[in-house]
Amino acid sequence: MTGFDLLAGEVAKLAKERFSSPTPVQEAVIPEILKGRDCLVIAETGSGKTEACLLPIFSFWIKQKPRPTSILYITPLRALNRDLLKRLLWWGQKLDLDISVRHGDTSPYERLMQAENPADMLISTPETLQAILLGKKLRKALENLRWIVIDELHELLPSKRGIQLSIGLERLKSFLKQKPQLIALSATLGNPEEAAEWLNKDCKIVNTVPRRKPRIEILKPKPEEADYRLAEKLLTSPELAARLRTIKQVVEGRDSVLIFTNTREWAEILASRLRLLGLEIDIHHSSLSKEARITAENRLKTGKLKGLVCTSSLELGIDIG
C-alpha cells in the first residue's frame, strides 16, 4: 500500500494515472494531512511537495463537497500563481473543482466574476489577501475556508510580508465558520522549529531534504586578447567583456540558464549585451507587462530560449523543467 491508496477513490485513481507512484515527500506528507494535522513541509523544488499537500486536501474536498471558497493557496509571487494554476487545472477539470487566481494582474472583469461566483479554490498573494478581506462578497465566501496552504514560507517569514501575512491570517481566522487546517511549504528553512511555531506550535514538521552540499563555483575571468576586441565592439571595458564571454560559454554549455541580477536596469543592459553576442536570451522582471513575463517563462520552458536574465521575480519555485 502506498500513500496514494489512502486517498479518496477518485483522487487515488487520478494520482496513480498521473504519477504512477508517490515520491518520498508524498509518502511522508499525505498520511499526516489526512489525519487533519497542521503541517510544515520542507522538500526540494521538483520533489512533488505541492501535490503532497493538495492531493489529501482534494481527497477531503471530494468527500465533503463544502461550499466555496474552501481552499486558499497563498504564494509570494504572481508568476508562481500562474505556474501553479496551469498545473492544477487538470485536477480541477477531473474533479469538477473550480480553481481561480487573484493577484495584481487580475482584470476588473475577472474580479467581478470571482465575487459573484466564488471558486472552490483560490490562489493568491499575501497583499491580495488583505485587499480581498475588505470586499463583502469574497469575504463572505471565505467564511467557508477549511484548508489554507502557504507556499515558499522561507521567502515570507523574515520580511515585512511575513508580518503582513500573519496579520491577514489572524483577521481571516476571526470570521471563519470553523478552524482551518494550515499547511506550509518550503524548499529550505534555517530553523524549521521556529517556522513551525509561527504556523502553529502543534504542527507536524516533515523534512525530506537530503543533507548535501550545493555546488558553488565563483568565476573571475581575466581579459584575453579577444576580449579587448569585443570590448571595442560593445563600447565597454575588457573586464566586462571577459565576464560576458564567460556567461556566454556557460549558457551555450547548458540546456537552459537563469541569469540573476540585482536590479531591473542591469537585467536590461546585460540581456542587450548578450543578444549582441548571438545568444537567444530574454528578460524577466516585475516592471514588464504580464503578457511579456508569461511569454518569457513559456519560451524558456519549451526550449525556445537558452537563457533568461531576471531579477528575483523568477527566483521562487517556478517549475522551469
Poorly predicted residue ranges: none
Shape by Cα distribution: globular
Name of the top-level CATH class of the largest domain:
Alpha Beta
- CATH architecture assignment name of the largest domain: 3-Layer(aba) Sandwich
Number of helices: 14
Q: How much helix is in the residues?
A: 40-55%
Number of domains: 2
The neighbouring-strand order within the major sheet is: 3-4-2-5-6-1-7
Give the overall pLDDT as a whole number.
87
- Percent strand equals 5-15%
Query: In CATH, what is the homologous superfamily of the largest domain?
Result: P-loop containing nucleotide triphosphate hydrolases
Overall structural class, as computed from helix and strand content, comes to: alpha/beta
State the distance separating the first and last CA atoms.
30 Å
Radius of gyration: 22 Å
